[in-house]
Structure formats: C-alpha cells, structure tokens
Amino acid sequence: MTQDDIRTAFIEELTKIAPDIAAEDIGETDHIQDDLGLDSMDVLNLVTALHQRLGVDIPEPDYPRIATLSDAVPYLAAKGAGS
After folding, report:
1. Cβ proximity of 14 and 26 under 8 Å
2. I want to staple 54 with a disulfide (CB 3.0 to 4.6 A). Which of 43, 58, 61, 81 is the partner?
3. Which of 34, 39, 42, 57 is catalytic?
4. Residue 83 maps to a domain
5. What is the CATH number of the domain that holds 23?
6. How far is residue 46's CA from residue 78's CA, in Å, rounded to a whole number?
7. pLDDT value at position 22?
8. What is the DSSP letter of 11?
C-alpha cells in the first residue's frame, strides 16, 4: 500500500466518523481534535476503523502520532498499513 493509498484511507475513514467534514477541507497539518473538532470517542472510532481497514494496531500512547494527516501517513506506513 502506497502512502497515497494510506492518505486516501485515512481521509475516507475520518469523513465517515465525522461526515460534516469535507475531505477537501482537511489540511495536512489540521489536528483532528483541535482543528477538526473530533472528540475522544471519535478518535477511538477512527483508530478502530483504521485498524479494520489497514490491519494496524495503534496503541493509545501513539494516538498523537495520527493527530494530523502529515503525521498519520508516515506513521501508518511504518506500521505496515495494508500489508
């Protein structure tokens, strides 16, 4: 899975969790909680969705590593997303 594939998967799962957020409005450095308004339950739902779709485990101490698109894509790639 390429980083573009991971980026697309992250955005698709994020917009499923928060349908009021348009994919084109998500900036590379927008923080999912501070800028996009997800609450802690939304973050947990996103982690679960990413696990199911990409097959990666994201432990709670690593949640800050998926807080922005620019952080999440390389993190998920390093975890073997989609392998």
Report:
1. yes
2. 81
3. 39
4. no
5. 1.10.1200.10
6. 18
7. 96
8. H
